[in-house]
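Work Package 3 (structural annotation) set out to generate three-dimensional models for the target panel prioritized at the project kickoff. During this period the team completed the workflow that converts sequence records into discrete structure tokens, so that structures can be stored uniformly alongside our sequence database. As a representative example, we reproduce one entry of 457 residues exactly as it appears in the project archive.
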Amino acid sequence: MSVPQIEWDQPLIEKYNYSGPRYTSYPTALEFDQRYTEQDFLQATGRYPQRPLSLYLHIPFCHRLCYFCGCNKQITRQGHKADQYLDTLEAEILKRAPLFRDRTVTQMHWGGGTPTFLSAAQVSRLTACLKANFRFAPDAEISLELDPREIELEMLDHLKQEGFNRLSMGVQDFNKQVQKLVNREQDEDFIFALMARAKALGFVSGNIDLIYGLPKQTPESFAYTLQKVLELRPDRLSVFNYAHMPELFAAQRKIKTADLPDAARKLAILQQSITTLTEGGYQFIGMDHFALPEDELAIAQREGVLHRNFQGYTTQGNTDLLGLGVSAISMIGDTYAQNHKVLNQWHQSVSEKGTGLWRGVSLDSDDCLRREVIKALICQFSLDIRRTEQQWGIDFSDYFSEDLQLLSPFIRDGMVIREGDCLRVTARGRLLIRNICMCFDRYLRTTVRQQHFSRVI
């Protein structure tokens, strides 16, 4: 399967640049509610008992506040708070792990917050607990996010010794003025040293996160950042759209709206980023993600086996995902479950019940079908209609008659083509894949739902 290049169509991008989900899940988290119970979770663990297991651990602590951040986090420099957190996290692990004693963990990711807030001893404590309670595959993919401002080079050696083999580093922008305005000043040379050390230690993959739309960014200033990224040559790259929502995230109130690039300049930065990275040898995976052609994500997309879940694009789609820690989300069986988002409430829930479960949703057959349709479009940019009909026992045109009507403007605008038994997203439509997927989202039939999401670009 050849991957087409992106065609930048300014009028179409402006026409369709409205709000919509990122589809790390379908249904989205807006559909989660507290009617989902521990019994629902327990039943879900038996739905696909042979599936491998993916673990996600949320470490909420950061040393310093980044003004753009919308993550679930707690700013502190008190290391003992992490020890208290690990006490509760270990209790949750001991409660959940027996449900998966016959499963093999093939993937684990630590997110946050900043997982490298943990000291070397705390990292070892947590990995020891996990390895004592779960069965890990020898070749398991084990990754974490790190902040280059708050880590010593030697910590990479320790992480490698503990089994980590992939790293994701938040850089956002190499421009000093931009860094200062978002309270994330960092040392450029040290970032290069971290990447060099990771490669020397044999980390399999490295990811760099950038953000466009930050205060005082211009196409000219971001060109410097892109050039530095090409010099770093990470295996994977994320270029996220900054969504300014100060009414939701208090930290963003420290960013002056007047300093933000306007819509035209923001689009120019994105267009420049795509051109620079694809000409620099990166494959556009989808939405904000790029990968070198030899990376697993790029290979999986070319072979039509790429997946997507709460951790983003992944090669390991046929797994159940167990989330542990405050706010963590699980995808078990045909259900989604989320832990309490407020730290004290999560602590209390684990103390009283053994788990941090707060809310969730059980998927019906229509949800499961639409999830597969959306996943195929967002990962492969195509959908095999005949295969879908055979797998789900439906007549596609009849079942999705309303959805196809919603899709018709995208077909008229040359963003989607129906070729026999295949729906194919064209190069013109790839940047707007979220909008295309929204046509198949039955929860978005009212504009009220759309108001909960950021713009697609």
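Residues 235 and 294 are 8 Å apart (CA to CA).
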